[in-house]
């Protein structure tokens, strides 16, 4: 039995607007539209929607998903098997992170002692949930260079890099009550700019650095991750990055 768009939205837990958008871009076109303009979704449409959401959950862009599911070589069973394997791997990483958090809590309470290696169990720089966004913004070459540089690091070097990154976040979190234009904030954000350019095989132009700061507040995944170090940190960093770019550009343009 065909379902109306509102019914599908309620079933899936998404919005009617999202389903309309999928239709408009040719990603999920309902099998039937009534004379009154109502979209009606068949069981085949729902199976396709399930597939789309699996890919979306794993970080694929809508453009990528469309290319995959409408490819002549697309195999639904093969795709589901791939989804399952990727989700199992994701669950394994999450379980490891939860275990690390539990041990860290006990460590801070003085109940156990954690080694440096145990403190970073579960962190994996080889899995970047924002890689697709990065590829779309800065191109494959820049991301491939970054992955290649990280891939040459030993596990200990990757852990040290992660700790250095966290130190910068913590330092900025401690001063987020200050003005983003303050000297202290600008010195810290300069360290962030240099850290990114020195360690990931990609040089951020001032424009790209400002754009990255905008993503911190426009993409809720960035916001949530950064704000773990302190509520409002993502917004503070975004403003500080914009101020840093503005002041640096003035210096460059001055005679």
From TrEMBL:
Name used for this protein in its record: Transcriptional activator of multidrug-efflux transporter genes
Signal peptide: none
Phylogenetic placement of the source organism: Bacteria, Bacillati, Bacillota, Bacilli, Bacillales
PROSITE patterns membership: HTH_MERR_2
InterPro entries: DNA-bd_dom_put_sf, MerR-type_HTH_dom, MerR_fam, TipA-like_antibiotic-bd, TipAS_dom
UniProt keyword Protease present: no
Keyword presence, Transferase: no
Record domain HTH merR-type: where: 2-71
